[in-house]
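Subject: design request, 393 residues
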């Protein structure tokens, strides 16, 4: 099939996109870019496969009033102009929540779109933007097939025990269970593991996706067995702005003793906590690493302490550990964070090769280490493109 696939990742304030050739299995996009600051100060950037920056054209004139729909209305003709010879075959969307209904990707129809919109309360900060992007594409290019790829699907292989909260059964039955997220990233890493681990890829592996959003996934046979995120993308590890796992009693305290409303608490837990809240400085790991503020150091130390604790909590689900993979912005780029986490895990048999870690080598454990530790770049857009390719066949 000739033509191109467009992978779209619509977040609250950004739309990331990547364009892939439809007729090859390549994981390298022909064009990759983003509109950041949507609704604030929109900024367009895009590069071709060779790394050359591409001109924004009409997208340079976006203003504060431009929402997701306005951005997509300009992005589609911009893409058409930059892929002139190749028709757009499908648009694949990263959709954060597939609920219990979607255990795999799906072609979007009117009833499917309705189901995705009904899941908005489960991911209020992400799902509405994913749905808005699908609606915008349907409006401007109704002729083009759309594919929804879910961050939750990868975890649907989990045992019931890994998915249950210790809550009254009626709540579990209505869907208050642990879903898990970052599934597209885990899917990509699971796909490339054999190339790095050989037979051990089917063993007991924990993947640490450490970025602005952070989570871990314990895999066996390259399938998700347990994960640190739960009902929402707020649970588990400490993140850039999100608190991660929290005693639910704190939420009750904020309501009862501090009189805070649900929206205020949501803002506190999703936007003002994590690295930003503890450091009082920034949600950006690189900024904190470059700072000599003691609060920045404490934020990094807490991030690593909690990551190591969370990892240790996942080990029983897979009965040991053969390999640990670091991925995403922090996992791929921060040698100090990887070192601090691994230092706490020596008892698991992990031994880091400091020199390899410092140069961001693919294998950063020593030959004596009982656990292989790898640094692998994730590529969620490639999973979306592959899904389009599979479904359009
Ligand atoms: P992501 O959400 O995967 O794009 O990851 C974003 C996070 O990665 C931010 O906290 C960045 O500060 C962090 N990051 C990116 N590059 C580096 C680096 N060289 N050193 C430390 N952190 C980094």
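Subject: RE: design request

Done. Sequence follows.
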């Amino acid at each position: 099939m000739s033509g191109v696939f467009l992978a779209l990742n619509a977040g609250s304030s950004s739309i990331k996109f990547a364009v892939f050739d439809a007729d090859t299995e390549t994981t390298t996009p022909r064009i990759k870019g983003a509109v950041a600051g949507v609704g604030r100060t929109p900024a367009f950037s895009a590069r071709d496969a060779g790394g050359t920056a591409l001109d924004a054209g009409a997208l340079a004139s976006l203003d504060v009033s431009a929402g997701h729909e306005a951005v997509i209305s300009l992005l589609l003709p911009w893409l058409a102009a930059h892929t002139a010879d190749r028709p757009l075959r499908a648009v694949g969307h990263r959709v954060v929540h597939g609920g219990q209904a979607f255990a795999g990707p799906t072609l979007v129809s009117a009833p499917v779109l309705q189901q995705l919109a009904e899941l908005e309360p489960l991911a209020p900060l992400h799902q509405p933007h994913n749905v808005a992007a699908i609606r915008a594409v349907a409006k401007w290019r109704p002729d083009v097939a759309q594919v929804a790829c879910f961050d939750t699907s990868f975890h649907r292989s989990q045992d019931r025990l890994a998915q249950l909260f210790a809550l009254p059964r009626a709540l579990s039955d209505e869907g208050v269970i642990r879903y898990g997220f970052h599934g597209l990233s885990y899917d990509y890493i699971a796909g490339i593991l054999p190339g790095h681990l050989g037979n051990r890829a089917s063993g007991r592996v924990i993947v640490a996706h450490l970025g602005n959003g952070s989570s871990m996934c314990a895999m066996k046979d390259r399938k998700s067995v347990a994960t640190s995120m739960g009902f929402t993308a707020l649970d588990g590890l400490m993140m850039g702005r999100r608190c991660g796992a929290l005693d639910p009693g704190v939420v009750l305290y904020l309501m009862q003793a501090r009189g805070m409303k649900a929206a205020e608490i949501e803002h506190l837990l999703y936007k003002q906590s994590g690295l930003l809240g503890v450091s009082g400085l920034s949600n950006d790991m690189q900024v904190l690493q470059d700072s000599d503020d003691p609060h920045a150091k404490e934020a990094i130390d807490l991030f690593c302490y909690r990551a190591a604790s969370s990892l240790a909590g996942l080990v029983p689900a897979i009965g040991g550990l053969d390999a640990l993979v670091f991925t995403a912005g922090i996992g791929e780029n921060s040698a100090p964070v990887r070192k601090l986490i691994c230092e706490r895990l020596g008892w698991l048999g992990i031994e880091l090769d400091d020199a390899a870690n410092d140069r961001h080598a693919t294998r950063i454990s020593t030959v004596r280490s009982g656990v292989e530790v790898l640094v692998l770049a994730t590529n969620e857009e490639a999973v979306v493109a592959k899904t389009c390719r599979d479904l359009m066949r």
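The longest strand covers residues 88-95.
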